[in-house]
Each structure stands twice: as structure tokens, then as C-alpha cells.
Write a structure and sequence with these properties.
Layout lengths: L1 H13 L12 H9 L46 E6 L2 E6 L5 E5 L9
Antiparallel strand pairs: 1-2, 2-3
């Protein structure tokens, strides 16, 4: 038993514990966090990126999936002359006959759509 306790005592006396303001034994951790108070809740804010299609551009409806349930995402139902397509977190309202983009819709409810 003494063989196990002796090395522990040597290590603890060689490296004294540091319990500064933050209570950590690692000085670099305390040095970084002591200057900046840590917020309770972290929120990530994403800037809207440039969309590949703008209003008036032709949208590739053949290669994209149609958004089947617009009410689920807080969008008004389609009247048949236009449809919704989602790509890269943006919902495009596209004219059915010509494929022209009528509107770009970015909401928190549609940001996860790919």
C-alpha cells in the first residue's frame, strides 16, 4: 500500500493544485475564461448566404424535389399556377408553366430543408 501512496504524494507536491477564480487545476483554462464571462446560453446566428437563384431566374424543377406540404412550414397553399421547391435552406416559389422564380422564402421553419 505504501508503494502506491508514495508516488502519489511525490506528484502532488511537485505539481501543486491551482484553484484560481474558475476552480480549475489547469492554469491555461482559467486564464482564458477569467477575462471573458461565459454566457449561460449559446446561440449560433447564421448569416444568409447568397442563393444560386434570384427572382426572375429559371429554376431547375426537373432536378429538385417539390415541397409537398407547404402548410407544415407555415407557407400558404399553392393555387396551381406556382409551386414550392426547397434547396439549401431556401424555399423557392416557382411559376409552374415557365419555371421562373417568383419569390425566395427564408424562415426558421424552412432553414433545415436541403
Amino acid at each position: 500500500m505504501r508503494a502506491l501512496i508514495l508516488p502519489f504524494l511525490v506528484i502532488t507536491t511537485a505539481f501543486p493544485a491551482y484553484s484560481g477564480e474558475c476552480g480549475s487545476i489547469v492554469r491555461s483554462v482559467c486564464a482564458e475564461t477569467a477575462d471573458q464571462p461565459s454566457p449561460g446560453r449559446k446561440v449560433i446566428k447564421l448569416k444568409p448566404s447568397a442563393t444560386p437563384y434570384k427572382v426572375g431566374d429559371t429554376f431547375p424543377v426537373e432536378t429538385r424535389s417539390l415541397l409537398m406540404d407547404p402548410a407544415r412550414y407555415g407557407l400558404k397553399p399553392s393555387d396551381g399556377s406556382w409551386r414550392y421547391y426547397a434547396m439549401g435552406g431556401v424555399v423557392y416559389r416557382v411559376q409552374s408553366a415557365s419555371g421562373l422564380v417568383l419569390e425566395l422564402i427564408r424562415t426558421p421553419r424552412t432553414s433545415h430543408l436541403r
